[in-house]
Amino acid sequence: MPGHPTLIPPPPPSPNASAIEATLELTHLRDINPNLFTNTRPLWHPPGARGIYGGAVIAQCLAAAQRTVPADFYVHSMHCYFVLNGNAEIPILYDVEHVREGRSFATRTVQARQRGAPIFTTTLSFMREGSGGEKKVEHEHHMPEDVLAQGAPSSEGSDWIRGQTSPFVSARVDILNDSDERPHVKRTRQWIKARGRISEEGGHQAHLSALAYMSDSYFIGTVSRVHKLWRYNASNVKSTDGKGNGSLGISTDLIAKLKGMPISEIRKLEGMDEDIISQLQSVEIKDGKVVLSQPPRPEIGMMVSLDHSIYFHNPKAFRADEWMFTECESPWAGDGRGLVMQRMYTKEGKLIASCVQES
């Protein structure tokens, strides 16, 4: 039987809402439970992924929790665990538990469930605005000077997997220290922003949810990039319908599109580096099959996120629909796991969030 990706048929999107607001919209099931929410619209299952895009569940858990705290409380941290793969054909129920109600801090735990089983759990801490006092100890990590001097992209790029349907856009920056043989000294970089303009109705909570959504963009892919590993297996490419129904979701149509693009444009795409571009140039499509003209690049068989943490440093000092710069590093990988750390800045160089993920 076909699935039902939402509990209630979704209404038409608000004409004032941006694409990312529509993607993350929640339906409040207050008549059942005042702390229960569900996804209003179907969630995206990335090609080749084992489940729905993790950033969507992260962001919707945050959005649900934000609706249960006073308006002057802002999230400063959330710690998440991916328990099971999310199914895009089944609605998600978000159950918010009130753990603490303090004068300066409030704590919430959110469980995302499908078919009665938890697929994701997170604990979030909120702090009342201005409760840090008048005198503060302050410092922050500076945005790399070369990136700050170069500035943000002048135009929106495109998502090479989702195209114009993506609720956010990104532009890749060259990997720092890419020629170094030590993976832990490399830094993967990109610019990222929500597509369009986030509405005033969404408040700054919408920008926080959007940042949480985008924080998962190619996060664990850092491990494969610093080790120069190929994430997509050419042997799994399917050409019968051009839609890429192989286990890694790459279609011959997509390969042909990429090969027809100028190298300068390919370099701007998320997840592309010089080694991937070189591998792409060695690929030919003959009789609907992918043929490699040089030995294939080593590849990762599977990647899945285990946990994800976000520390929000300046929750009202940014707009998620303006360019943000992200820089990732991987201090360790071993025993089938890899750790990645990410810093997120405004285009003016202000540190707005730090993230950690193990995969």
UniProtKB/TrEMBL annotation:
SUPFAM superfamilies: Thioesterase/thiol ester dehydrase-isomerase
Domain annotation Acyl-CoA thioesterase-like N-terminal HotDog: ranges: 42-127
GO MF annotations, alphabetized: fatty acyl-CoA hydrolase activity
Residues spanning the signal sequence: none
Gene Ontology biological process terms in this record: acyl-CoA metabolic process; fatty acid catabolic process
Chain segments annotated as transmembrane: none
Limits of the Acyl-CoA thioesterase-like C-terminal domain: 158-358
GO CC terms: peroxisomal matrix
PANTHER family: ACYL-COA THIOESTERASE, ACYL-COENZYME A THIOESTERASE 8
Protein name: Acyl-CoA thioesterase II
Organism whose genome encodes this protein: Cryoendolithus antarcticus
